[in-house]
Amino acid sequence: MNNKSFGNFMIIWMGEWISSIGSGLTAFTLGVYVFQMTQTASSVALLTLCAFLPSIVLSPFGGVLADRFDRRLMMIAGDLLSVFGLVYVLIIMLLGEPHLWQICLGVTFSSIFVSLLEPAYKATITDLLTEEQFAKASGLVQLAASSKYLLSPILAGILLSFMDIKTILLIDISTFLVTVLAVMAVRRNLQTEHRVPTNQSFVKDLKEGWDALIYTKGVLQLTIILSVVTFYVGFLQTLYTPMLLPFTDTKTLGTVLSVSAIGMLLGSLIIGVFSIDRKYIKVLALGLGFAGLFFSLVGLTTNVAFITAAGFLFFATLPFVNTSADVMIRNHIPNDTQGRAWGIIGILSQLGYVAAYAFAGILADQVFNPLLREGGLLASSVGKVIGTGEGRGIGLLFIISGLLIIIMAFVIPRMKSIRCLERE
């Protein structure tokens, strides 16, 4: 039975992996299209926000629905309805040159219905698998997610050389249909869990999800840790480019970003193949400790090869951190509240990205870069070690951030509430 359930999970996972690649194709090509249309980075940032924020903000409501209704049906509904946003963008492109607000409207519509998909997908993993399979499944889910940032940009670059953005949108739309067919195939093979209809308000449902999250103290603390991790990843995503471009070119920058992303792909693949057998707190702490070390090393020098290697190793550690926290959280949330809980966990853990996107530029431009410019306050001291000039302040910010992550790695195993999660 376990093998059959894992096989059903793999069918759904394959569909979601293909869909993730398609979403990455659209994200990359729309970003290029909007920049070429407006010649402003702020327009691309607005597009990214429209694609990112609605699914985060609405994920708790998607979680409520995932607990009220058949989770496989919720995944199908989320996939199908999100397609209409892409169809809208495609239609306005076929009719002529679209405005930025029209593209953002279509992307926002798609993102709204992704909020139905994600909590149901997370909760379905618990439905299908045993506790021993959670870690392997988490690694595979991260592998699929990382493909959006690694495989999709490369494929999009190749495809754009001989086809236009409209064709790529059609490809993405077709990948959603593949996902729907995969989920429908699994749903036919499973006895659908009967969920008793409820007239309970959304607010009360959300409160029950929150209560499930805080019932075991360590679960909320682990969620906060995930938010801190996304905060630092958001820092790196935002500031990698302005740190590197002062002393390298865009082609080299693209290579550094791609190789760094391969690290996350490799880490996820290792977990997906070999899994993690217990000792989750130890894996979490070691993963965070090495992540902090490699984060600091990214900012230590202007040697591109050294930075690339450190970036690769930093991203390779993240799946071990995420999987350890994921399994411990999943094991301590009742299955009937998994959807609501994961919806709330989604918004809390992703707040780190929002905070990073909001503060990274300000910290870099207004605080750290001025310190290491010629004549800056730290130019004659720290500057002798890590260098001076534009972008070196970002390097200092990375070093400090890495040290803070290392401190967190030492503190976590000493937290009684988190230790109790593993014992239980």
UniProtKB/TrEMBL annotation:
<feature type="transmembrane region" description="Helical">
    <location>
        <begin position="12"/>
        <end position="35"/>
    </location>
</feature>
<feature type="transmembrane region" description="Helical">
    <location>
        <begin position="306"/>
        <end position="329"/>
    </location>
</feature>
<feature type="transmembrane region" description="Helical">
    <location>
        <begin position="341"/>
        <end position="364"/>
    </location>
</feature>
<feature type="domain" description="Major facilitator superfamily (MFS) profile">
    <location>
        <begin position="8"/>
        <end position="419"/>
    </location>
</feature>
<protein>
    <submittedName>
        <fullName>MFS transporter</fullName>
    </submittedName>
</protein>
<feature type="transmembrane region" description="Helical">
    <location>
        <begin position="41"/>
        <end position="66"/>
    </location>
</feature>
<dbReference type="InterPro" id="IPR036259">
    <property type="entry name" value="MFS_trans_sf"/>
</dbReference>
<feature type="transmembrane region" description="Helical">
    <location>
        <begin position="394"/>
        <end position="413"/>
    </location>
</feature>
<keyword id="KW-0813">Transport</keyword>
<keyword id="KW-1133">Transmembrane helix</keyword>
<feature type="transmembrane region" description="Helical">
    <location>
        <begin position="283"/>
        <end position="300"/>
    </location>
</feature>
<dbReference type="InterPro" id="IPR020846">
    <property type="entry name" value="MFS_dom"/>
</dbReference>
<dbReference type="InterPro" id="IPR011701">
    <property type="entry name" value="MFS"/>
</dbReference>
<feature type="transmembrane region" description="Helical">
    <location>
        <begin position="140"/>
        <end position="162"/>
    </location>
</feature>
<feature type="transmembrane region" description="Helical">
    <location>
        <begin position="214"/>
        <end position="235"/>
    </location>
</feature>
<feature type="transmembrane region" description="Helical">
    <location>
        <begin position="255"/>
        <end position="276"/>
    </location>
</feature>
<feature type="transmembrane region" description="Helical">
    <location>
        <begin position="100"/>
        <end position="119"/>
    </location>
</feature>
<keyword id="KW-1003">Cell membrane</keyword>
<feature type="transmembrane region" description="Helical">
    <location>
        <begin position="168"/>
        <end position="186"/>
    </location>
</feature>
<keyword id="KW-0812">Transmembrane</keyword>
<keyword id="KW-0472">Membrane</keyword>
<feature type="transmembrane region" description="Helical">
    <location>
        <begin position="73"/>
        <end position="94"/>
    </location>
</feature>
<dbReference type="Pfam" id="PF07690">
    <property type="entry name" value="MFS_1"/>
</dbReference>
